[in-house]
Specification:
By secondary structure, the protein is mainly alpha-helical. It has helices at 2-11, 14-21, 25-31, 35-55, 62-74, 82-97, 99-126, 134-154, 163-177. The chain has one domain: Orthogonal Bundle (Tetracycline Repressor, domain 2), CATH 1.10.357.10. The chain is elongated.
Length: 188
């Protein structure tokens, strides 16, 4: 992760990766046939990191779960990892050119949207709102998170610390509150 985040995919050679890991080049090649296989493992690892941050919140109330989800991705607090954000941007860029990376990136995004869609549905139901746009809301939040990642790395001085998480959270709850109260879900 450290080599990819500082050198990019093109500059991250297996000898540099081995050196950063304190391993021999041969040992890295033993476990990974190509640099691309290392990047594929990095996709899995990065998703694991954010999932652990989300699950560690142990929130059960729907609105608190949405906040925990957004914080797991964007909050600048304990566990925040700028190298991970940089690597995720690299993975997104490589997904455009490499079919295997694209497939892994897409699978990760579909999984993340499914989790977020369920969280949004739970909030909408708890508030007696229509769930019809739950997927669109989840996709909008995902797009805001992904866009925040790009800005955080590409123009870090533009975004004040804490801006991304609080702004995306406000946007997410705005999308939720914009949904009409459902006649099926209306509280009595």
């Amino acid at each position: 992760m450290s080599v990819m985040s500082t050198s990019g995919y093109g500059g991250a050679t297996i000898p540099l990766i081995a050196k950063a890991a304190g391993l021999s080049t041969g040992l890295v090649h033993y476990h990974f046939d190509t640099k691309q296989s290392i990047l594929l493992e990095l996709v899995r690892h990065l998703i694991e990191i954010v999932d652990e941050r989300f699950q560690s919140s142990k929130e059960s109330e729907p609105a608190a779960r949405l906040t925990a989800y957004i914080n797991a991705h964007l909050a600048y607090r304990s566990g925040a990892n700028p190298m991970a954000v940089s690597c995720w941007n690299i993975i997104g860029a490589e997904a455009v050119n490499q079919p295997e990376i694209k497939a892994a990136y897409q699978a990760a995004m579909y999984d993340q949207v499914a989790v977020l869609e369920k969280v949004c549905e739970d909030i909408l139901r708890a508030e007696g709102r229509s769930i019809r746009k739950k997927r669109a809301i989840a996709l909008g939040i995902t797009a805001a998170i992904e866009g925040s990642y790009r800005l955080l790395i590409a123009v870090p001085n533009m975004i004040p610390r804490g801006f991304a998480a609080t702004t995306v959270r406000d946007m997410a709850f705005g999308l939720i509150s914009a949904q009409p109260v459902s006649s099926q879900n209306r509280r009595t």
